[in-house]
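Quick question about two entries, pasted in order.
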Amino acid sequence: MFGLMQQEELLISGLIDFAEKNHGETEIISRRVEGDVHRSNWAQVAKRSRQIANALHAMDLEVGARIATIAWNGYRHLELYFGVSGTARVLHTINPRLHPDQLAWIVNHAEDQVLCFDLSFLPLVKAIHTHTPTVKHWIALCDEDQLPKDTGIEGLQCYESWIGQHTDHYEWPMFDENTASSLCYTSGTTGHPKGVLYSHRSTLLHAFGSALPDVMNMSARDSVLPVVPMFHVNAWGLPYSAAMVGAKLVFPGPALDGKSVYELIEQEKVTFAAGVPTVWQMLLSHMLPLKAQFSSLKRTVIGGSACPPAMIEAFKSEYNVEVLHAWGMTELSPLGTLCSLKNKHNLLSPEEQMKIRLKQGRSFFGVLLKILDDQGQPQRHDGKSYGDLYAKGSWVIKKYFKEKDSALIDGWFPTGDVATIDEDGYMQVVDRTKDVIKSGGEWISSIDIENIAVSHPHVAMAACIGIPDPKWDERPIVVVVKKPNTALSKEELLAFYEGKTAKWQIPDDVIFVDAIPIGATGKILKTKLREELIQPQH
């Protein structure tokens, strides 16, 4: 027997329709590539999304055609989010921080037919356009008078002229909610990147889940600043959740330095922000010397890599901003866990609460997690037993784009992380499987080693890697960038570890460098560090 209820397809077009009808005047603020601040709202985004839909139809693109973007966070990019997917075509957001050869490979693998880009990425597009034969239409996200002449890109169009010649009258089509909606590629630190193809259903369920009170707690009362790029796993789904709840969106464009981000937060009364630790480090570095304060910011989600305890403490003690630790992956749309406290934790001391906040958090309805040992046996959820982390759920990958084989093992996705899960469901990443250091048969968490280093007042950034050792197989070393105008010796930093971790886990060496290599998604490139520091020893 089936229930006797209506069944509506979960489609992205439903989000923008809802936002227009119920939150049409709510602002969408964008700092543009041009340097000015553009003011729009959900009603205007909806109308222009429908113009995009008509413009795509005029191009005679088939259902499922891939439309690529190489763009910063802004209102035009947001319009493409809805205008492309709403027509049953696929939005393909591309990370511009990748090498041009890798970008061309991704465009060709996706078989993109249209590529829309911000003018600041024109040199990048010029470098790849002759190597991407599937792209038939090139669209610069700009006004007509800003379109450069003699770019060498045949048929290059201006976005405003492209959509401007079309009406905003459009009836969004109805189709199966399992239809593909957007495509993101993994960063591809080893081998070629892999495509993760999201559906309308998975995207909306992810938006529902991430907006929950125990997750990102988003509402129409929020002013949301996604510092996380829209080309990085769809800005963690924030554009979709914001439309779902009718929140104000504030886009930073290309200006991600501490001063610019702080000014935008204050000008637009941002209550909630999201980004990777490196961005927040720049923000804190700008604010601390000026003794600046936030007038509106209440919470921030930090993900992408483990957040140093010192950063969580600084946000809380200096600015009364709650830091919500998050964990996820491109393959998880991306959210898997978020660290919010339970009712029973309210009575704990700040020190005890901090121990919980340092974990990556609890999964929420829609995601299941488990940990297995090397023999594939389930490990206890006691906060101590660790193993390989697996995930399954309504917005977790099943198979990579164009791959024949399933990405799953017995129905579960292997995340590549090593983790613990405690009795309350709080997951803590011990390390990446490829980064964990095995010394004398025991595991050493490179994340723990890095967190201790970064808590030293003279350390700006740290990365821990394992180096070969004839007796112990591997031993940890820590690579450190010092804060400007500070003095710190190897002996001082190693002494700083005493009492904070077991003696056998203290690094064997400290290497001071001017900079640590950062990848396209803001994560430390440990593969490159290993190449630079280990290979010369052989």
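Here is the second entry:
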Amino acid sequence: MSAPIPGTPLATRSTAGTLDCFFAPGQIAVIGASPKEGSIGRALLENLAEFRGGVFPINPKYASILDRPAYARLADLPGRIDLAILATPASTIPGLMQECVAAGVRGAIILSAGFRECGPDGVRLEAEVRAIAARGGVRILGPNCLGLMAPHTRLNASFAASPARPGSVAFISQSGALCTAVLDWSRREKVGFSAFVSVGSMIDVGWADLIDYFGRDPHTRSIVMYMESIGDARSFLSAAREVARDKPIIVVKVGRTAAASQAAASHTGALTGSDAVLDAVFRRAGVLRVDAIEDLFDVAEVLAKQTRPRGPRLAILTNAGGPAALAADRLVLAGGQPAVLARATLDELNGFLPAPWSHGNPIDILGDANADRYAAAFEILARDPGVDGILVVLTPQAMTDALAVAERIKGALPLAGEKPVLASWMGGAAVEAGERVLNEAGVPTYSFPDRAAQAFVYLSRYSASLTARDETPDAARSDPASTPGVQTAAAIIAGARGRGRVILSQEESKRVLAAHGIPVAGAIRAQSEDETALAAVRTGFPVVIKLHSETITHKAAVGGVRLDVRDATEARAAWRAMERDVTARAGAQHFLGVTVEPMVRGDGYEAILGSSIDSQCGPVILFGSGGRNVALLQDRALGLPPLNLTLARRLMEQTRLYAALQPEAGRPAVDLNALGELLVRFGDLVIAHPAIKEIDLNPLFLSAEQIVALDARIILHAAEVPDRDLPRPIVRPDPVPRASMGIFAHER
């Protein structure tokens, strides 16, 4: 895996122009065209009937097909072909690709199945096709795909049963079957597309190419994706970060419930799963991940119509408690927050609402609420600085005028400013006129309030993702030579690898951390009973005695930890018991003595901070609740190094532990700024030493008095792995600030 090149422009391949052969071709050849009913070759020709350019059937069996002259081979065609669509058996594709190269074809859509999904032979066939196309400069979409549509130019280069409506959403899917289902749904819901693309196996054209292209496409306002695999994660991140600021990118990525990762040498390695890493990639790129297909288009609509909220706090205005409670539940479960109304807001609402109103959020203004009551309450909520968005819920009751309420809400929209407004007008035909008014005013409407609340949470997440996208850590921090003590840490690592070791002892691990300014609990080495007792006396009781080993990482599993040792006699006994237990459970060669360190007490929390390597994304940072129950708690968040203080705070905020660290009455607070700076320094360490495979700081003790790593382990890549093959971070700062974007350079 090669390193990112600092200063390299984001798009090192110019993909936008090269994809015109797919979305704006002049002439198209259909190889495998057929007049047979029910055949893919016939469906293609029928779907291309409205295409404004030339369409040429290729099939040596026929003189004409569907009233078009047919040709035996590409070489027989008049003029140059921009796009060839191949609908023949997989075994014929290499030969046909040779013909495409010879004829100067610019792009090819391979609809055929029978490649990598069929095993090793299919993989070899795929590689052969790719190599032929690469030599001739032919771009490939597919294989094993449905094709594509560009509705604004009446191009339907697919065998789908129905065409896509023109619109502003570019839809990209790895599943052809899902494409057909979405097309059927979109026609019922009147959703339109700027492009509709089935990518299949992506042997050439992939996510990054299409994001680049649609980022420049004037018909496209948002990009939505159904993703089964990310492919080249670096290229995806690079392209997505460039486009996401101007056009929302929304992804539903399947595979959340894949089997857990295999056992690793560290807790971090076990807790870091590929899907969770992709979440971190999406956040850093400014991409919004949603949970379901219907959410893709809900979110695309709300992003097209509404501003992004400043935060996750939603006010729910309603004339019925039940639907509002449904919305509030979904809001909280999805990660949003009910807005806490300001005292001044409550006073204003109390001034005109009937006494039985809810006196909180949701703001239930009761079933007899008329348009004036709705409008007055809405205007008050719009002024509350603690409200980031407003959901207006209406249920039709005897005295409800859904149209009048909608008109008044429409008139008050300017008061909301940058706060997004969503609505749920429940009741079907009885509220259609009001829904129409709101939709025309740019307010997304939902049949049920829980879907509206979910849409707001996605909107909030998207806003947070764009904030993370714009964060650019100081490039100097990622230069190993600029980090104090880095040479000390590098010497420790190089020394261990030079001796054929891949596990640093706890003492060595702590020295590496300390060299990067990360506070660690001091320890004294001891190699006998007497030395252990003396070290314990010097340290001051109570103490912790731990195994010193260059081969064992999970010390507790072999009896290598003794807590709360209170006198010299107990210290001697701890040495003897540890030597006996480690010898019995692991072998005498693994017992190299002990370390003695202070027993940390106090009102604090145990966290874990670590790093491990993802095969696609390089080093990944983990933070969360730690201690002995770290695997049970499963409270962790992942981020990509390097970090700055804002990114470090966002990482902490994703955990349940973060809420526990907030100040409470009677208890001094943990210094979150100091913790954030520690996370930043930890990210610098990870960047500076690519030879590190895994790190665990567990527990990392957090209290008002101190933040200190009580235990540490570092796992290295074997010395046989050359420096050029050591994993590199997927993202790095530019060494030269780019004022216009503040963006990272990424390898493509």
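Reply: The first helix runs from residue 20 to 23. The domain at 522-599 is CATH 3.30.1490.20 (Dna Ligase; domain 1). Hope that helps.
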